[in-house]
Amino acid sequence: MRKILRQILTSRVYEAAIETSLDDAIALSAKLNNTIRLKREDQQPVFSFKLRGAYNKIANLSKEELARGVITASAGNHAQGVAFAANKLKIDALIVMPVTTPAIKVEAVKRFGGRVILHGNNYSEAADHVKIVAKETGMTFIHPFDDELVIAGQGTVADEILRQNPGRLDAVFIPVGGGGLISGMAAYIKTLRPEVKVIGVEPVDSDAMARSLEAGKPVTLESVGIFADGVAVKEVGKRTFELCDEFVDEILRINTDELCSGIKAIYQATRSIVEPAGALGMTGLLKYIRETGCTGKTFIAINSGANMNFERLRYVAERTMIGEQQEALFAVTIPEQPGSLKRFCHELIGERNITEFNYRLSDRGKAHIFVGISISSSDERITFSRDLSEAGYANSDLTDNELAKTHIRYMVGGRSNLVKNEKLFRFWFPETPGALVRFLDATRGHRNISLFHYRLQGGDFGRVLIGLECEQEDNRDLYARLAELGYTYFEETDNPAYELFLK
After folding, report:
1. If residue 467 lies in a helix (H) or strand (E), which one and from where to where?
2. What's residue 1's pLDDT?
3. Residues 21-45: pLDDT tens digits?
4. What mean pLDDT, rounded, does the chain reach?
5. Which of 93-102, 251-260, 370-379, 442-451 has the lowest mean pLDDT?
6. Under a CB-based contact definition with an 8 Å cutoff, are residues 182 and 198 in contact?
7. 3: exposed, middle or buried (C-beta count within 10 Å: 0-12, 13-18, 19+)?
8. What distance in Å separates the CA atoms of residue 315 and residue 310, rounded to the nearest whole number?
């Protein structure tokens, strides 16, 4: 232990890295009745803590090793750390990255002067290829986590935290991939502050460290998830496993929806957008509070990286409400008859907000709708399903159904051979309870809703697509009722996209 502490305290990381801030999440702390702080490793020059370990290792190489250049395998953040360090020390760097690596990370490596080879679908496959290339080129391999100097470099995060937070500290929540960050931090924290819990956080589909600790030895996963690409590691390191086995208190596993809610929580606290792996610490912290019900504690989460592809934000936003347990998804069967939709919305939805509604006429006897509702807890899902059943509505809870969340919700609809004299309208509905019921009241009569699509967008107005079966002689009355309703709308009956895919 004296050796690793000495390596941490004499690390050369500050020749390249900065001491990052420890920020209070004031609103979140008040909401959850605990003091929550965020260690902002997203502030590093490469937007990730990985610079610390990479630079510390490279800066301690011999002149002969530096002259041969360095090579590594990485899903992105370690790659940027190596490229940045190599550029600062004016040596050659070759990085092997999985083909699934977000473009923002690949371009960043190139911007720092690193050469890139894309190979494999995850870190482990890229690492296997590095062994071949390193042997051919003679370049010095810089391991992303299983190296004493890399671990020591990452351990400087713990040194900063204990200086920045000298008072009460109950637990630190740390993202876990190969284990470099948590092993260095855990060794330092447990030596100086053994009462502080060190809690690792892993995705359920990339939980190599949790499984290894349970097995008592490093295990190899058959496959890993790629949403949190920064921790998509099939096998943890030998050194990192030994340190985690001795000093880490527990590992929490979290799912993708929970991880998306963690990204949102960090954004609300700091207005920064972290990558999925970067939000693991916060996500684990929130889950810990939710499951233990603790209050009055002081917790720190590590924001480990912010190399987020902008295009991924759409997916994150889509899954956040479920991750926060604020949305439930259901398939519900209702009678295909006038008034049934209004009864469903008025009597069963009640004051709950509808977050999503997808329907397309396919049977004159019954209608299958895909609906999302706002909830306040997971227990409310059970209550709502029971209420539906008691009211005679067959239903299925799809909140945890990955197929439904990822694909089916976007595929409800298409053409219908039963639809006659359909008119298509695009509406702006006010995002208030009862907006749909008011629309149904305004269009009451013999008009049948043949298509309905709505998804909460987070604005003041919801965008809704509605198809109505309407006889020619009824058009004038329909337009009059829509004008009286006052909702902004656009008729899309002649839209070519409607002709191609829905009519």
Report:
1. strand 461-469
2. 65
3. 999 999 999 999 999 999 999 999 9
4. 90
5. 442-451
6. yes
7. exposed
8. 10
Q: Which residues pair with 371 in a beta bridge?
A: 330, 357
C-alpha radius of gyration, the chain, whole number: 27
User: What pLDDT score does 113 carry?
Assistant: 92
User: What distance in Å separates the CA atoms of residue 343 and residue 218, rounded to the nearest whole number?
Assistant: 57
Contact 295, 33 (CB under 8 A): yes
For the chain, which domains are there?
2-48+148-321 (3.40.50.1100), 50-141 (3.40.50.1100), 337-501 (3.40.1020.10)
Residue whose C-alpha is closest to residue 456's, from 430, 438, 489? 430
pLDDT average, residue stretch 346-360: 82
How many angstroms separate the CA atoms of 81 and 143, rounded? Answer: 12
* 8 A C-beta contact, residue 290 and residue 323: no
Q: Residue 206 has what pLDDT?
A: 94
Q: Distance between CA atoms of 360 and 422, rounded to whole angstroms?
A: 12
> What pLDDT is stored for residue 304 in this prediction?
96
* Closest-CA residue to 281 (of 253, 306, 302): 302
The secondary structure element, H or E, covering residue 5 is helix 2-9
The per-residue b/e assignment along 416-426, b for 16 or more CB within 10 angstroms, e otherwise, is beebeebbbbb
Give the integer Cα–Cα distance in Å for 124 and 233: 6
Longest dimension (CA), the chain: 89
User: How many residues does this entry show for the chain?
Assistant: 503
pLDDT of amino acid 446: 61
Beta sheet of 197-203, edge-to-edge order: 22-24, 35-40, 298-303, 171-175, 197-203, 250-254
Terminal alpha carbon distance of the chain:
71
Q: Is the pLDDT of residue 484 over 70?
A: yes
**Dist CA 18 CA 49 (whole Å):** 10
Long-range contacts of residues 105-109, Cβ cutoff 8 Å, at least 24 apart: 105/75, 105/76, 105/77, 105/79, 105/80, 105/307, 106/76, 108/46, 108/76, 108/80, 108/83, 108/307, 109/76, 109/79, 109/80, 109/83
Q: What residues are annotated to the active site?
A: 50, 304
Angle at 441 between CA 473 and CA 432, to 5 degrees: 130
> How would DSSP label each residue in 55-122?
HHHHHTS-HHHHHH-EEEE-SSHHHHHHHHHHHHHT--EEEEE-TTS-HHHHHHHHHTT-EEEE-SSS
Taking the C-alpha atoms of residue 139 and residue 91, their distance in angstroms, rounded to an integer, is 11
Tell me what pLDDT residue 244 has.
Answer: 98
Listed residue (77, 332, 29) closest to 181, CA to CA: 77
